[in-house]
Amino acid sequence: MNGTRRKIPVVPCSGIGKSLGAVAREAAFVLAEDLRPDKTKIVALSLLVLGDEGARREVAGREAVAIDGCKLECAAKGLACSGASNVHKVAVFDVVRRHRGLKPEGVCDLNEDGLRLARATADEAAKIVDNVDAEGGHA
Amino acid sequence: MPDLPRKKIGLIACSGEELAEGTVTRRAVRKVLETLRPDDTVTLCLPLFLAGGEGERAFARHYPTIAVDGCDKRCAAQATEKYSAKPAASIVVTEIAKESGCGAIGTARRLNENGQRLAETIAEKIVEETDRLLKKKPRDAGRAAGREKR
């Protein structure tokens, strides 16, 4: 077993205008801190937008997970522009369709439904992470 | 008189997900937008500059903006300048945190009480800059701030 394998970069959208952006952000924290802390690492989208060398090194030529709140898919585009070899997309606007009873509200402080949706989104992202990990895509 | 568009200030938070200070920028900007200066401000989504948000780029070219950054990398200020125009004002949370000596502020996921207070302080700074850029008189500014109490 190789203990030095790099963590899979996870980039959430930084949407500040709508609840689904906040859900994407919270989902990234649930994934990287609670569900798969040994396999994933959050990379700030703002650093990729700026073209920060350190952030680009984290994603260039690697498989990465984008968690986006809306159809503009800023996180996925940011990863693609930064040279990620394969961008696995998790879209909150799709996840919410599979959980129609949830009505997320709030941006800085998500309501209970928002937190549940973030957990559901993180669960879907965790499955992708496990597949990438099994295929050795983050070596 | 023609109906000219009202001058508004664009607020751009870095939202940095790796640092608690990034979360402070989000909370501060939302506070200004929702309660302190709702009629005078809009938020611009930083990643949209890169993702091709022409509306975002155009707004920042023609209207004054305030960049609110978590750290001295100043992603919001620099990206705004790179894709549109130099921000009219720039606020860096780590600098103000250092001046105020606020101590540990929690994590990017959850701010503690210090972090919440720091966000309030940053929100006040944003309001000062907004009023300066709009050349608001103190009386006007006070009236706008008073909305929060109602």
Task: Label this structure with key terms.
heterodimer, A: about 140 residues, alpha/beta, Rossmann fold, four-stranded parallel sheet, about 45% helix, globular, B: about 150 residues, 7 helices
Short description:
Chain A has helices at 19-35, 45-50, 53-59, 74-81, 92-95, 112-134; strands at residues 8-12, 40-42, 63-68, 86-91.
The parts of chain B where pLDDT drops under 50 for at least 5 residues are none
| Major sheet of chain A | 4 strands, parallel
Count of alpha and pi helical runs of chain B = 7
- Beginning-to-end CA distance, first to last residue of chain A: 12 Å
How are the strands of the largest sheet of chain B arranged? 2-1-3-4
Q: What's the overall geometry of chain A?
A: globular
> What is the oligomer described by this structure?
heterodimer
| Broad structural category of chain A | alpha/beta
- Here the CATH topology of chain A equals Rossmann fold
Order of helices and strands of chain A: EHEHHEHEHH
Tally of DSSP β-strands of chain B: 4
- Percent strand of chain B equals 5-15%
* Strand tally of chain A: 4
Mean pLDDT of chain A: 92
Q: Mind explaining what this structure looks like?
A:
- The complex is a heterodimer of chains A (139) and B (150).
- By secondary structure, chain A is an alpha/beta fold.
- Chain A has one domain: Rossmann fold (3-Layer(aba) Sandwich), CATH 3.40.50.
- Chain A is built from 6 helices and 4 strands.
- Chain A has helices at residues 19-35, 45-50, 53-59, 74-81, 92-95, 112-134, and strands at residues 8-12, 40-42, 63-68, 86-91.
- In chain A, strands 2-1-3-4 form a 4-stranded parallel beta sheet, sandwiched between helices.
- In chain A, α1 (19-35) packs across α6 (112-134).
- The mean pLDDT of chain A is 92.
- Chain B has a 4-stranded parallel beta sheet, with helices on both faces.
- Chain B is 53% helix and 11% strand.
- With 150 residues, chain B is of the alpha/beta class.
- Chain B has one domain.
- Classes of the chains: A alpha/beta (139), B alpha/beta (150).
- At the A-B interface, α1, α2 and α4 of A face α1, α2 and α4 of B.
